[in-house]
Specification:
352 residues, mainly alpha, Farnesyl Diphosphate Synthase, two-stranded antiparallel sheet, 1% strand
């Protein structure tokens, strides 16, 4: 996709900043309910304090999910603030998954600084993740008359997210994973929660199921586009931009979309890649950790030669198109539709 803005009437940074500004006070208030030291550990994870407990102004992420929740409320004709409890709940579930994911993957860096388990230990990472998950459910259930209806969507999305995490881990120990299996995993791991973010504000705003369901379809495809871009960045992303190590997904033996698409392709590059990854699967973690940059670079080059990168970039566009098409199936204010389409475009052209 071109980086030219196809939605000149929409300022995506302003949508993201509105999501942060409206959600941040409620998110801080929610985290403040946690018992010590979990409140401090969570504050470090969110970037509000540094490892010594001093106030910090850390990059808190893209804020796509809060922006979606607020636009979702507006799609139902409600004020954007109506979506704030949904935005907070989704952010808490998302960050629960990040805390556990960092520990499971052994990632030592997130957003250019040490992860929670590295600073505060694995036990605190697990406990705080669990606490954020419980807090999310408490907040959404207390979100007024529509709270229980919204909570059902959040619960389903959370279960699917965990399903996706389990599938992702299992795939690391398999020699072969099909493209269909990978898409199912990524639809669970990433698509489910973005689908929830895109629909939960509408539910809180009193929308009928038809609108909420269409927004959920939009969010599901947006999540798959988001993850496809993430998969490309996980192999070829610039560490200075992504905050992760070079070849990060290859180091973790992830069966991401570029990898499975390359393995499924015909030709000598796919055959050489298959032989290398089959041999890699038999190596111990210690042997794998001893790989030098050239070995990971060789694997990345084979993935690209076999067409895995090009296929994944095209898949991101296909999912983007499906997301935007879903917006045309139900009535909503034109400005809201344009904002949701602009956010989808932002997800596909991002660099981190």
């Amino acid at each position: 996709m071109t980086t030219a803005n196809p939605h000149p009437g929409v300022a995506v940074p302003a949508l993201l900043e509105r999501g942060r500004a409206l959600t941040a006070p409620a998110l801080r208030d929610a985290v403040g309910r946690l018992a010590a030291p979990m409140d401090t550990v969570a504050a470090y994870h969110f970037g509000w304090i540094d490892a010594q407990g001093r106030p910090a102004e850390q990059d808190s992420g893209k804020a796509v999910r809060p922006a979606l929740a607020l636009l979702s409320a507006e799609a139902a004709g409600a004020p954007p603030a109506t979506g704030v409890p949904g935005a907070v709940a989704v952010e808490l579930v998302h960050n629960f998954s990040l805390l556990h994911d960092d520990l499971m993957d052994g990632d030592e860096q997130r957003r250019h600084r040490d992860t929670v388990w590295k600073v505060h230990g694995p036990a605190q990472a697990i406990l705080v993740g669990d606490a954020l998950f419980a807090l999310a459910n408490e907040i959404i259930l207390n979100a007024g008359e529509a709270g229980p209806r919204a909570a059902r969507r959040l619960a389903t999305a959370s279960r699917r997210l965990v399903d996706g995490q389990a599938q992702d881990l299992a795939f690391e120990h398999r020699e072969r994973v099909s493209v269909a299996e990978c898409l199912e995993m990524e639809g669970n791991k990433t698509g489910a929660l973005l689908a929830c973010a895109a629909s939960i504000g509408a539910v809180l705003g009193g929308a009928e199921d038809a609108l909420a369901d269409a927004l959920e379809v939009y969010g599901h495809h947006l999540g798959l586009a988001f993850q496809a871009v993430d998969d490309v960045l996980g192999v070829w992303g610039d560490p200075a931009t992504t905050g992760k190590r070079t070849w990060s997904d290859l180091r973790q033996r992830k069966k991401s979309l570029p990898v499975v698409a390359a393995l499924a392709a015909p030709g000598p590059a796919a055959e050489r890649l298959t032989a290398l990854l089959t041999a890699d699967a038999k190596k111990s973690p210690e042997e794998f950790d001893d790989f030098d940059e050239a070995e990971f670079a060789a694997r990345a080059a084979l993935i690209e030669e076999a067409g895995g990168r090009a296929w994944t970039e095209a898949e991101a566009r296909r999912q983007y198109d499906a997301a935007v098409a879903a917006l045309d199936t139900v009535p909503m204010p034109a400005g809201v539709r344009e904002g949701l389409a602009a956010l989808a475009d932002f997800v596909v052209v991002r660099k981190k």
